[in-house]
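STRUCTURE:
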């Protein structure tokens, strides 16, 4: 069982930066790939970024490449998403998810075993 709690969301101006965190409790965090997804109002949840269990391989949605960076600290059971050059279209509830496996190259929601409750990021223009 893995429990996930996101934090760090808030209001930021376009062009600004924000870092959201996801703290995990329970076993096997360090053996799972971790992902960030987001859901904007009226839209379906979408993949944002994923990271292998070692932190050695990352995947990003095209919309955030070059602006967002995912990282993890297995000693602290925490995964981060650093968001730079934020745009109003990045406004969404951001969710972290713990995947079934340690290394995943394709990130449909079906590979996520555990979800956090989300943290709201609002980017003003």
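SEQUENCE:
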């Amino acid at each position: 069982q893995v429990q996930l709690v996101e934090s760090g969301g808030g209001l930021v101006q376009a062009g600004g930066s924000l870092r959201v965190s996801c703290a995990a409790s329970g076993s096997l965090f360090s053996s799972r790939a971790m992902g960030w997804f987001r859901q904007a109002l009226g839209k379906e949840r979408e993949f944002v970024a994923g990271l292998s269990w070692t932190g050695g391989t990352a995947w990003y949605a095209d919309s955030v490449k070059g602006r967002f960076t995912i990282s993890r600290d297995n000693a602290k059971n925490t995964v981060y998403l650093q968001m730079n050059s934020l745009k109003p279209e990045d406004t969404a509830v951001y969710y972290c998810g713990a995947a079934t496996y340690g290394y995943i190259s394709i990130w449909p929601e079906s590979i996520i075993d555990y979800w956090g409750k989300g943290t709201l990021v609002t980017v003003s223009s």
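REMARK: DSSP finds no helices and eleven strands in the chain.
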